[in-house]
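Methods, example record. To illustrate the input and output format used throughout this study, we show the complete record for Inorganic phosphate transporter. The sequence lines were provided to the predictor; the line carrying structure tokens was produced by it.
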Amino acid sequence: MDTTMVVLVIVVFLALAFDFINGFHDTANAIATSVSTRALKPRAAILLAAGMNFVGAMMFTGVAKTIGGSVADPAALDNGLQVVIATLLSAIIWNLVTWWFGLPSSSSHALIGALAGAVFVGAGSDKLNYGGFTDIVLALILSPIIAFVIGYLVMQLLKVIFAKRSPHTVNKGFRTMQIFTAALQSFTHGTNDAQKAMGIITFALVTSGQLSEMEVPFWVKLSAATAMALGTSVGGWKIIKTMGTKIFKIEPINGFAADFTGASVIFSATLLHLPISTTHAITSAILGVGSAKRFSAVKWSLAGRIIVTWFITIPITAVLAGIIFKILF
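The corresponding predicted structure is encoded as:
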């Protein structure tokens, strides 16, 4: 086995490790509200999320192509494999740090920021596709704003529709419906998040000459989907606690509104081939729903910490990827 193939194997391993970590880091996205309202028991919720993540990951590749070709042209990089290694190490480190502190940060931000930083330092500023990078960052910024607004409006509509119903009856019905929205949200999470590792692996295959274009091979789809599902099955209890209990006291009707909103925004982005942060979309939906319930019910200090993490992720992972590239190569 020549040196290029050895490095490529390392890249695939790191990409699947990132996907596995992304799975347990982002498990909370899909199931935090259903667990907190006791619509699902924790273990059942995690198994549901793992299964639906796998199904969603196997069905789409548009986001993978965007990830793999919009930030830089892999065929134009002489040291593309080294760039990808620095990218993945930076994103993995940041995901583990934010998981340790229980902060629902974005794996998407981490990966995009790290890739941009690694390309800038490792290949030169002229190799960075600023237009494609800007489009992705714009989608990452706008999606949580859209999710917040839609979550607020959905919750206001539900309040009007069920204003005269017994709260006990309403919550009982929505607790059952949360099982379906948790499944839907897990599916949409797989359609968007798992494709990011697929895109990075395909990027590496193109830059190493193993592929001639950004078409995701079946084995890449299957391995990334499996890694995501296995990671999801581990569960990210610290982030589940943050999203499910610490932002505001979630009732089944709130959980349904947040899950439906998050799934709608994520799937719309997938159909547009845009990699967005599932974490941001779902957390923002929860914040929007909480604001509609009662503005003062939301613990804005915690929300502020989460938002700060969102904004610092791209620059930190970009710098970290540049440093890692310099140290290793």
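Annotations derived from this record:
The radius of gyration is 19 Å.
Residues 3-36 form the longest helix (34 residues).
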